[in-house]
Amino acid sequence: MTGPIPPRWAPYLQSVLRIVAAFSFMTHGTQKLFAVPVAEAREPVVLVSLAGLAGVLETFGGLLLLIGLFTRPVAFLLSGEMAVAYFLRHAPVSLWPILNRGEVAALFCFLWLYLAAAGPGPWSLDARRRGAGARP
Asked: What's the pLDDT tens digit per position in 79-106?
């Protein structure tokens, strides 16, 4: 028995995972660069700063992942960004992600690392450029 979801759906769900995660990731960047969306009004970060660089990577790297273009190298770069974010900002507070509020950074780090190895899935511009896009 294979489970409730047929294994043939796995590549398509990989694409869905990439799309949903990339959209969420982009919002972290747009918060930094444009202060949108935010719960309370605040100023955008200074572009020429570490937070500004993170905002650019998250917004535009996230956009590339959203559409599935240059997925493997972009995902690898963003995985590194999230590792740096975790160790610079969160790990000094505590070893445990639940205590240092670094769960999101850790999860994005390993999600992007997975996509760097596995690729974007069939619903992507990368697959379309290879002629590999398909239906479930």
From this structure: 999 999 999 999 999 999 999 999 999 9
Euclidean distance between CA atoms 35 and 105, whole angstroms = 19
**Phi, psi of 94, rounded to the nearest 5 degrees:** -165, 155
Q: ∠59-23-111 over CA atoms, to 5°?
A: 95
> b vs e for 41-51, b when ≥16 Cβ sit within 10 Å of the residue's Cβ?
eeebbeeeeee
Tell me what pLDDT residue 3 has.
86
32 phi-psi bin (left φ>0, alpha ψ -120 to 50, beta other): alpha
Is 134:10 a contact under the CB 8 Å cutoff?
no
Between helices 71-85 and 103-118, what is the axis angle to 10°? Answer: 160
